[in-house]
């Protein structure tokens, strides 16, 4: 069985209908059946899916219409029904063999070639109960076929049967004129020949006209009782006439669905296919075709569409429904006037984690109910939908809407959640974030939704309750997107560079080390600040890749310097949290450093990154020290690590954050804090490096407090490798 699972996964019928509607709605005839076999194989994880056709002229053989096996369509062929499970399907109806089907039917050659273990088959029936063939699912392993799977196969078989019936009807229409009358009378529905006049005056109709229209065939001929065109629903008449006219102009068949009103007043959906008939002079004088009653199929399709366009959890329209509505509005009018408000529940993830997913689902249903109840009293609201997760959308019809309209609607929506939501014993206050976008400023439904999403992202990034999309935001987002693309390209091409800032022994002024800092100069953007491109790397999930590139460049530089100088001070490289979170971090560091002695590298990780997962950090730092690397904790004092953890981490160096260093001279409390850190580091046997030294006064104070090393603009700004080498190594 595909995926190695011994039992077909239970499938939700509603979700299955959703997939059928989403993937097969526009397909037709044999293409439909081919795609259906593939979709069923994927949906049910089935190794083989087969649709076979049975002809009345040869009921002992089945003709394969589509055979999808192990990921591809096989060539169609025919096989004997005798001695096969398919014979049981045709003779008695659905049959299921959960296991041992090959042993049960040893004379079925195709079955033996496949080596199938399990089998389920259902017949394909016409609307009047005739058997057109069968749909079968086979698996290489024993499989428990649930009632839900059988129900799904029956629905799929009925769809395939409907398509196959249409194929057969079409083929029969191509038979010779000599057999036309017999064929017409045997067809379901009504076959006809009519004049190409304003009334489509019938010259000939089949006996099926009575069942289809409720009128006697003679009453339709020559418009004796009523003209067929007058049976067409008034709302559909213009569409039907336009489709027929278009087909005539292009000399092709017309195929269309529309409604008719029967003699008894009942409304029925029909499907018609026909073609214009030209005279010797080339003029289309007549139309010939047939009309089928497809009411049941249409209602079934409506049900599928309803499922496809409805959110299962809340019962609201879903994202496809929202896009369908907006797309129709854009098709109707180039710049429709709608205000789209995107709603996000703040802290929803925390609620899920705290109370569980069932509580989260209950909360979403409560939110949906409050919104649904609230917008009934609001003017101009035309649609409420749930997009996904905790995001909802309200669409309001607003002529020339502006910021004031958005704020008014957003405030009204906020008022719906003044009262907290009860979650068991807890009363949870709900806060919403909202963004707005205007359909008149977008060219499509997808773009409108994207603009609202961009505004929501901006609101989340900047802690705003409300945010609307405008040209300034568009430029900002476009600029950020362009900068991100440029950065990812630079990273892929290894175009980022490293600079070095010396680390100075405070007592002697001697350079005893250096910290590597990454720099990015872009030919188009110029020098991009590190905090910007590092934030891009973090958001794009490539911070680890950036870190390893910096380490690779650093190792190459140290190797180059070791060939030229007797003594090269240790070089510090920053390690990101994404690197530290990897299980292979130690092996990766050893691999990148190659033959370089680990003592030549000092790995720096910030205190806050260490505290993301202290247990993982303890294990990694211990292994790195065992490999010979020196370790430094960066920005100490900002990450709220406990002394007990600090004692457990296998560290060498403690770096004092620059904010404390720069506040020392004007803030006694900061001076006391720095002194406390220095005393603690000395007690733990750690070296200390003060960051961000900018003045002589700061350097003197640190020296007096017992700090050993420092770095900052007072000594040197970060320098390119060549300049650092010239200034600090060649002396």
Automatic annotation (TrEMBL):
Annotated ranges, domain PAS = 176-251
One matching Pfam family is GAF
Q: Which residues form a coiled coil?
A: none
The GGDEF domain extends over: 336-472
Where's the EAL domain?
480-731
Give the residue range of the signal peptide: none
> Sorted alphabetically, which InterPro entries does this protein's record hold?
Biofilm_reg_signaling, EAL_dom, EAL_sf, GAF, GAF-like_dom_sf, GGDEF_dom, Nucleotide_cyclase, PAC
Q: Where is the PAC domain?
A: 254-306
Could you tell me which PANTHER family the record lists for this protein? BIOFILM ARCHITECTURE MAINTENANCE PROTEIN MBAA, DIGUANYLATE CYCLASE DGCP
User: What is the protein's name according to its record?
Assistant: Diguanylate cyclase
- Tell me the organism: Pseudidiomarina halophila
């Amino acid at each position: 069985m595909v995926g190695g699972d011994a039992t077909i996964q239970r499938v939700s019928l509603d979700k299955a209908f959703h997939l059928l509607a989403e993937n097969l709605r526009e397909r037709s005839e044999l293409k439909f059946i081919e795609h259906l076999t593939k979709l069923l194989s994927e949906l049910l994880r089935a190794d083989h899916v087969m649709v076979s056709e049975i002809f009345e002229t040869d009921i002992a053989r089945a003709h394969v219409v589509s055979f999808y096996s192990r990921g591809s369509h096989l060539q169609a062929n025919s096989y004997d029904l005798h001695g096969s499970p398919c014979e049981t399907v045709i003779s008695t109806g659905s049959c299921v063999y959960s296991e041992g089907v090959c042993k049960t039917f040893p004379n079925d050659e195709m079955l033996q070639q496949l080596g199938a273990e399990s089998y389920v088959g259902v017949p394909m029936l016409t609307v009047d109960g005739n058997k057109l063939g069968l749909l079968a699912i086979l698996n290489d392993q024993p499989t428990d076929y649930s009632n839900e799977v059988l129900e799904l196969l029956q629905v799929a078989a009925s769809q395939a049967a409907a398509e196959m019936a249409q194929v057969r009807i079409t083929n029969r229409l191509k038979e010779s004129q000599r057999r036309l009358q017999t064929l017409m009378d045997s067809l379901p529905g009504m076959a006809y020949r009519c004049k190409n006049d304003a009334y489509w005056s019938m010259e000939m109709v089949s006996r099926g006209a009575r069942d289809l229209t409720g009128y006697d065939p003679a009453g339709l001929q020559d418009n004796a009782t009523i003209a067929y065109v007058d049976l067409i629903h008034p709302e559909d008449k213009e569409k039907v006439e336009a489709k027929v006219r278009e087909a005539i102009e292009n000399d092709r068949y017309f195929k269309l669905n529309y409604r008719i009103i029967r003699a008894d007043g009942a409304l029925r959906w029909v499907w018609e296919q026909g073609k214009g008939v030209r005279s010797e002079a080339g003029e289309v004088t007549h139309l010939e075709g047939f009309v089928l009653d497809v009411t049941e199929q249409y209602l079934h399709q409506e049900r599928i569409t309803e499922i496809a366009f409805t959110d299962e959890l809340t019962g609201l329209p879903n994202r496809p429904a929202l896009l369908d509505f907006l797309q129709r509005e854009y098709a109707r009018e180039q710049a429709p006037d709608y205000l789209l408000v995107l709603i996000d529940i703040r802290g929803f993830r925390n609620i899920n984690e705290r109370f569980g997913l069932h509580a989260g689902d209950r909360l979403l249903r409560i939110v949906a109910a409050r919104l649904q109840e609230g917008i009934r009293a609001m003017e101009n609201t035309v649609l409420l939908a749930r997009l996904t997760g905790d995001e909802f959308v309200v669409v309001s019809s607003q002529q020339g809407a502006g910021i004031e309209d958005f704020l008014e609607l957003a405030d009204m929506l906020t008022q719906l959640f003044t009262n907290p939501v009860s979650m068991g014993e807890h009363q949870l206050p709900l806060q919403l974030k909202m963004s707005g976008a205007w359909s008149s400023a977008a060219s499509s439904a997808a773009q409108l939704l994207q603009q609202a999403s961009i505004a929501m992202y901006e609101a989340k990034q900047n802690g705003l309750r409300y945010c609307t999309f405008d040209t300034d935001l568009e430029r900002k987002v476009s600029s950020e997107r362009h900068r991100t693309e440029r950065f990812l390209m630079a990273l892929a091409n290894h175009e980022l560079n490293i600079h070095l800032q010396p680390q100075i022994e405070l007592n002697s002024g001697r350079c005893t080390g250096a910290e590597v800092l990454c720099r990015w100069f872009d030919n188009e953007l110029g020098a991009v600040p590190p905090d910007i491109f590092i934030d891009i790397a973090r958001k794009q999930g490539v911070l680890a890749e950036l870190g390893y590139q910096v380490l690779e460049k650093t190792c190459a530089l140290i190797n180059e310097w070791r060939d030229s100088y007797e003594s090269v001070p240790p070089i510090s490289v920053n390690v990101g949290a994404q690197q530290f979170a990897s299980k292979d971090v130690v092996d990766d560091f050893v691999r990148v450093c190659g033959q370089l002695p680990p003592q030549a590298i000092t790995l720096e990780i910030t205190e806050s990154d260490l505290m993301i997962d202290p247990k993982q950090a303890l294990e990694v730092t211990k292994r790195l020290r065992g490999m010979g690397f020196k370790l430094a904790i960066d920005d100490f004092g900002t990450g709220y690590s406990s002394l007990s953890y600090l004692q457990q981490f296998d560290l060498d160096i403690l770096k004092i954050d620059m904010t404390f260093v720069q506040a020392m001279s004007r803030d006694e409390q900061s001076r006391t804090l720095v002194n406390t850190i220095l005393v603690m580091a000395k007690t733990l046997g750690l070296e200390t490096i003060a960051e961000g030294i900018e003045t002589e006064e700061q350097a003197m104070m640190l020296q007096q407090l017992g700090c050993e090393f420092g770095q900052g603009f007072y000594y040197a700004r970060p320098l390119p490798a060549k300049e650092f080498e010239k200034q600090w190594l060649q002396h």
